[in-house]
Specification:
alpha+beta; Ribosomal Protein S5, domain 2; Alpha-Beta Plaits; 2 domains; four-stranded antiparallel beta sheet; binds (3R)-3-hydroxy-3-methyl-5-(phosphonooxy)pentanoic acid; lyase; Diphosphomevalonate decarboxylase; ATP-binding; Mev_decarb
Length: 359
């Protein structure tokens, strides 16, 4: 795999000080990534909707200093110094150092905030790491003699992936594929690419309401979960199934077959959790209210001839997906019924969005 394209070749300019701010989104996978090999290479291709409202805003101030062996940075989250978040970011810098050698020549002050509540069970690693990756690419763009926006997005996704696989899908939107797939032109294990085909209007501005069922700390980290796919009895079949699902979903997104979308997306969500339940050690991330909500969604769909469906991340929260045309009716259903199963009745209305924005 050609990773040398991401190592800066030409001599870089010298800049004393620079500050960049990026807003980058979270995403929700429709075909899930679960299982990887080193370094962050997915066992199957995945596709996600980029979100619009759930995002991270990160500012990095770069100040030139004498080059050192260690990366020098300070981290503030919502205005407060957060040393407990530093090891994860330090590990990220270590992984990208070969591709961003200039980070050793700057003192970095990172200020970050999320649009969604802290510890809401919404993973912030995708939006958080893609935001840092975009800030690094803004610096690299200034240090180099101009980079194309295509290269900036590609490399930002490549860098974000090294921090957290799903972060590679948080640079562009509204649909991003990560992982090499024969039916998706340009797809790669190294970075996410925009879904390359014209999408049927029914999937435009698709709605995603995130129901906050359990805001506690995850019992099992995604790193541990991915590793449990090694020697998992169903892993090989699962990877084949996921790639088949992506081929099918590609056609569905183009032809507008919403019924098949519902079937495939829910099957993906339950398969992800089935993999968790059938690994060893086994674990369950769903909560009783996750199942209550799923059953309510199924009843509503039947009674109203609706196209509402759900998907799940690696947690108990439920993502409710529905076409824009059903927004009013489903939002009412969420407010009056489903919110009763959420912690403190909390939920977030979101929809498919267009990716990273420089502020
Ligand atoms: O990016 P990671 O390592 O946190 O893994 C994310 C895995 C899932 O969210 C469960 C699925 C996905 O494709 O986003």
């Amino acid at each position: 795999m050609n990773t040398t394209q991401f190592i800066p070749k030409s001599a870089l300019k010298s800049i004393e000080k620079a500050t960049f701010t990026w807003q980058t989104p979270s995403n929700i996978a429709l075909v899930k990534y679960w299982g990887k090999s080193n370094p962050q290479i997915p066992k199957n291709a995945s596709i996600s909707f980029t979100l619009n409202n759930c995002h991270t805003i990160t500012t990095i101030e770069f100040e030139k200093k004498k080059a050192s062996e260690n990366v020098d940075f300070n981290l503030f989250f919502e205005g407060k110094q957060k040393d407990e978040f530093k090891p994860k970011i330090a590990e990220f810098f270590k992984r990208v150092a070969n591709y961003c050698p200039y980070i050793f020549e700057y003192k970095m002050t990172i200020n970050s905030e999320n649009s969604f509540p802290h510890s809401s069970g919404i993973a912030s690693s995708a939006s958080g790491l893609s935001a840092i990756a975009m800030c690094l690419m803004s610096l690299e763009n200034e240090l180099s003699s101009g980079l194309s926006s295509e290269f900036i997005n590609k490399k930002a996704s490549f860098l974000a992936r090294l921090g957290s696989g799903s972060a590679s899908r948080s640079v562009e939107g509204p649909l991003v594929v990560w992982g090499n797939h024969p039916e998706i032109e340009g797809s790669s294990d190294l970075f996410g690419v925009k879904f390359p085909h014209k999408v049927h209007p029914v999937f435009e501005n698709y709605q995603d309401a995130i129901l906050l069922v359990d805001k506690g700390e995850k019992q099992v980290s995604s790193t541990v979960g991915h590793n449990l796919m090694t020697n998992h009895p169903y892993a090989e079949n699962r990877f084949v199934q996921a790639n088949n699902h992506l081929g099918k979903l590609s056609k569905i997104l183009q032809n507008g077959d919403v019924k098949s979308f519902v079937n495939l997306v829910e099957s993906e969500a339950l398969t992800l959790h089935a993999m968790m339940m059938t690994s060893n050690p086994y674990f369950i991330l769903m909560k009783p209210n996750t199942l209550e909500i799923i059953n309510k969604i199924w009843s509503y769909r039947k009674e109203n001839d609706s196209n509402i469906c759900f998907t799940l991340d690696a947690g108990a929260n439920v993502h409710v997906l529905y076409p824009f045309s059903e927004k009013e009716a489903v939002n009412q259903f969420i407010k009056s019924e489903l919110s009763n199963y959420c912690q403190k009745k909390q939920y977030i209305y979101d929809s498919a969005g267009f990716g990273a924005k420089q502020l």
